[in-house]
Specification:
Helices cover 25% and strands 27% of the residues. Strands 1, 2, 3, 4, 5, 6, 7, 8 and 9 form a nine-stranded antiparallel sheet that branches. By secondary structure, the chain is of the alpha+beta class. The protein is globular. The protein has two domains: 91 residues, 2-Layer Sandwich (Alpha-Beta Plaits); 104 residues, Alpha-Beta Plaits. The mean pLDDT is 95.
Length: 219
């Protein structure tokens, strides 16, 4: 599934699904499970977290314009022989929406859903701002976000995807970054810590780092 413009992804639902797999499984179990991951109906990207996170082995990102389809797909995965012996320690759900601060990002600069080559690493985390942020004058918030954006543009090797979770999940946003350079990403994070908007961060953990893998090499 490929997209031409950001309008193609506007309003689509996304999920990041972490799964803890058993240490041993048969080829038949693996093939049955993978048959539910490869589908032209969904946009899907898969990652390995084993050796990085203790609570999960793999991470699945998928996107569809019908939220119930995402939920049904996860249920079907868990009904497979391998899924029945697995656990889901986290699911982050959200909606792709345009920024209210007027920033325009070319589709190719979007993490995951951009049509350029997948980055080696994905970093994703749930994000919640303080109540004071939403009670601050919009113009002041826009100025702080502009500072935030200027810092991000200094690191073109790092791409971002932001999903809105208000009202449908525990967090307010899902923030995902895609990069081939974890050192550059860490430099970005350290610099963002010194921006004014950081004062209004309530929660931005767990931070899940994952390594991109095609479905064929996922298990």
């Amino acid at each position: 599934m490929h997209f031409k413009t950001i309008d193609d992804i506007e309003g689509m639902f996304v999920q990041f699904v972490g799964m803890k797999l058993p240490s041993h499984y048969s080829d038949a179990e693996k093939n049955e499970f993978l048959s539910h991951i490869v589908s032209e109906e969904f946009f899907t990207s898969t990652y390995i977290t084993e050796g990085i996170r203790k609570e999960s082995s793999i991470l699945i990102f998928h996107m569809h314009n019908d939220f119930s389809k995402l939920a049904e797909r996860v249920r079907n995965m868990m009904r497979t022989a391998l899924g029945k012996r697995s656990e889901i320690p986290y699911i982050f759900s959200g909606i792709i929406r345009k920024s209210k601060y007027g920033t325009k990002v070319p589709l190719d600069d979007y993490a995951i859903v951009g049509n350029s080559k997948r980055g080696k690493y994905l970093i994703v985390y749930p994000f919640v701002k303080t109540s004071d942020w939403y009670l601050t004058d919009f113009k002041k918030r826009a100025e702080m976000m502009l500072e935030h954006i200027k810092v991000g543009r200094k690191y073109p090797s790092v791409k971002q995807l932001l999903a809105y979770s208000f009202g449908i999940d525990d967090q307010e946003f899902i923030v995902a970054y895609e990069t081939d350079d974890l050192i550059a990403f860490q430099d970005l994070v350290m610099e963002l810590r010194e921006t004014e908007a950081r004062r209004y961060t309530l929660r931005d953990t767990p931070i899940i780092t994952a390594i991109y893998s095609s479905p064929d090499n996922l298990l």
